[in-house]
Amino acid sequence: MPMTIDQIVRLYRSAGAARYGMEAITQEQHALQCGLLAQRADAPDTLVAAALLHDLGHLLAHTLPESAAGKDDLHEYRAIPFLRGEFGDAVIEPMRLHVAAKRWLCAADPAYHDGLSPASRHSLALQGGAFTTPQAADFLAQPHAAEAVQLRRWDDQAKSPTRETPGWEHFRPVLERARHCLPSESVRPEPVHL
Questions:
Q1: Among positive and negative, which fits the CA dihedral 181, 54, 6, 2?
Q2: For labelling alongside 83, which of 31, 58, 148, 159 has CA 20 to 30 A away?
Q3: 61 CB-side CA count, 13 A
Q4: Contacts of residue 23, Cβ cutoff 8 Å, sequence gap at least 6
Q5: DSSP conformational letter for 54
Q6: What is the C-alpha to C-alpha distance for residues 29 and 33, in angstroms, rounded to an integer?
């Protein structure tokens, strides 16, 4: 059964208070920062929603007994059953592809790898490392690959312990508009004021 927006927000406010891996922020801060970066880039609501929810699978994975340190938790897939039916592909597919986008960026731009945080380099190794040339071509051929790459860039930038963001009440209308939104129905977000 899909999670409601209220359930998602509650999960981020509770389990999301935990530290975001080896970063100096919480999971909730990371999500809100990523959403803010997407909104400031004038991304459509569906992509802002994907930015907010892209690591939801981490929160779900850590509630399961089989989660283990030192292994890839496949978080990009874990959230899909909890979102499908509430959100469409314009939200879910960039989320599903954001790990592959990191692997593609490492293959396409060696300087990108050098700019990754130590935590992102560690997770990259667990996730299979940079793509080979055939893997990179396969990634680019997928629908929503470009959106996933943009999401990945916001993901990398959303790790500041001092960045102020609006809270979930600001983003709730974005999530509501993104629900069941078909690609042709994507709408631009409201401006952000801090």
A1: positive
A2: 159
A3: 19
A4: 30, 117, 119, 159
A5: T
A6: 6
Q: Options 2.60.40.10, 1.10.3720.10, 1.10.3210.10, 1.10.600.10; which CATH number does 5-182 get? A: 1.10.3210.10
Q: Which of 75, 134, 131, 123 is nearest to 105 (CA)?
A: 131
pLDDT band at 62 (very low <50, low <70, confident <90, very high): low
Q: How far apart are CA 83 and CA 54, in angstroms?
A: 11
**Scanning the structure block, which residue is given the tokens 């530290």?**
19
pLDDT tens digit sequence for 129-172: 899 999 999 999 999 999 999 999 999 999 999 999 999 999 99
Exposed / middle / buried, residue 1 (Cβ in 10 Å: 0-12, 13-18, 19+) = exposed
Q: Over the stretch 99-118, which tens digit does the pLDDT of each residue have?
A: 999 999 999 998 999 888 88
β-partners of residue 87 are 84, 179
